[in-house]
């Protein structure tokens, strides 16, 4: 996330701090291990999990800025990290709660339509759908639904590498759904999905994380 999607991490730090949290980013943390687990490399996934269990010991909540990571962290109970699994949260959950409780504001300036893409690791693995939409609504956007069934965009961890043809077909379908919505702005809470959408939509569309868009709205409105 830091090298490719650093804006999401920066938005998380700003919003969580403004909402009253003390944000700590342990220097000894490492990759959550989701991609290793997807590939079936469970010894490597377990090694990475063990390092993170030590890094985040005593910290709660443990917030991940990528849906794939938050979903995997919640499975750490199978890798000896029951406490970390219980404390893991996706950043959209936390920010939506801060808005709901009034610790972060709702904005009243309309910002137009936005298509919402539900990452599988958020919608299906964690059953989180309302949070991204409430964040975008609080920013002033009108959310547009593109896929009531929440079909995979084709990124699916390393699926685009293992099954490129099937992945490309799913990406094409998702791109068509966005184009049919009429929206030129798309919200997605997972980096793999964002990369997939970019490759199938081109430069005429912008894809961004809900918390990035919310912080931009706060800054624009001086809130």
Number of helices: 12
Order of helices and strands: HHHEHHEHEHHEHHEHEH
CATH architecture type of the largest domain: 3-Layer(aba) Sandwich
Beta-strand share of residues = 5-15%
Residues in helix, %: 40-55%
Give, in spatial order, the strands making up the sheet with the most strands: 4-3-5-6
CATH class of the largest domain: Alpha Beta
> Could you say what the CATH topology of the largest domain is called?
Rossmann fold
Please explain how this structure is put together.
This protein is 53% helix and 10% strand. It is α/β, with parallel strands linked by helices. It has 2 domains: 2-95, no CATH class; 106-221, Rossmann fold. The strands form 2 sheets. Strands 4-3-5-6 form a 4-stranded parallel beta sheet, with helices on both faces. It has a two-stranded parallel ribbon with strand order 1-2. It is globular. The model has no long low-confidence stretch (mean pLDDT 95).
């Amino acid at each position: 996330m830091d090298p490719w999607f650093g804006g999401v991490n920066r938005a998380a730090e700003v919003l969580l701090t403004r909402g009253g949290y003390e944000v700590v980013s342990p220097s000894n943390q490492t990759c959550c291990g989701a991609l290793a687990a997807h590939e079936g490399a469970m010894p490597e996934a377990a090694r990475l999990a063990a390092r993170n269990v030590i890094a985040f010991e005593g910290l709660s909540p443990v917030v991940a800025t990528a849906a794939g990571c938050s979903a995997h962290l919640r499975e750490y109970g199978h890798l000896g990290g029951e406490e970390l699994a219980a404390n893991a949260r996706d950043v959209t959950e936390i920010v939506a709660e801060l808005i709901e409780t009034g610790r972060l504001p709702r904005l009243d300036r309309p910002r137009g339509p936005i298509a919402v893409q539900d990452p599988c690791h958020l919608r299906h693995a964690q059953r989180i759908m309302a949070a991204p939409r409430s964040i975008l609504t609080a920013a002033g956007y009108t959310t547009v639904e593109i896929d009531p069934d929440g079909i995979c965009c084709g990124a699916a961890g390393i699926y685009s590498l293992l099954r490129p043809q099937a992945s490309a077909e799913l990406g094409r379908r998702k791109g068509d759904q966005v184009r049919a919505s009429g929206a030129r702005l798309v919200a997605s809470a997972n980096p793999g999905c964002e990369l997939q959408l970019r490759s199938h939509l081109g430069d005429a569309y912008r894809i961004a994380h809900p918390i990035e868009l919310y912080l931009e709205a706060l800054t624009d409105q001086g809130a």
